[in-house]
Amino acid sequence: MPRVKRGKIALKRRHKILGQTKGFRWQRKSKERAAKEALLHAGVHAFHDRRKKKRNFRALWNIKINAASRENGLSYSKLIFQLKKAGVGLNRKMLAELAEKHPEVFKKILQEISK
Predict the structure, then answer these.
(1) Whole-prediction pTM value?
(2) 86-115: buried (b, 16+ CB within 10 Å) or exposed (e) per residue?
(3) 3-state SS of the chain: helix, strand, coil percent to 5?
């Protein structure tokens, strides 16, 4: 019976897993079982943190808007209320951008809504 060499696909899969865990610490980078487990957990954290990223940015935008509005004598909540009342359709991301990079435009918006 001729000799059959086996395991090409299995070796490829193992090598792929170890390649993905490059940079991990201790056994998680070199041992297949630990690496597989680490990858599963890393995937879960990556999934959750992609959603947390959105929360963090919204919080950051709120802080930037609040800081800029307080410089102009308004609190964040009063500013948002007046924006809604005036029907201004700017979202928080754009308001934060204006507050940080174009304070003169932000001030003009505040003057428009306070009329």
Answers:
(1) 0.73
(2) eeeeeebeebbbbbeeeeeebeebbeebee
(3) 75, 0, 25
Helices 103-113 and 76-86, packing angle to 10 deg = 60
Which portions of the chain are predicted below pLDDT 50?
Answer: none
Q: Find out whether 104 and 68 touch, Cβ atoms under 8 Å.
A: no
Torsion of CA 57, 63, 69, 75, to 10 degrees: 120
Predicted local distance difference test score (pLDDT) of residue 36: 96
Other residues' Cβ atoms within 10 Å of the Cβ of residue 14: 14
Task: Please report where in the chains the tokens 């007046």 appear, as a residue.
Answer: 82
d(CA 82, CA 84): 5
Angstrom CA distances, 87 to 40, 75, 107, stand at: 46, 18, 17
Distance CA 32, CA 68 (A): 52
Tell which CATH architecture fits domain 8-113: Orthogonal Bundle (1.10)
CA–CA distance, 12 with 112 (Å, rounded to integer)? 64
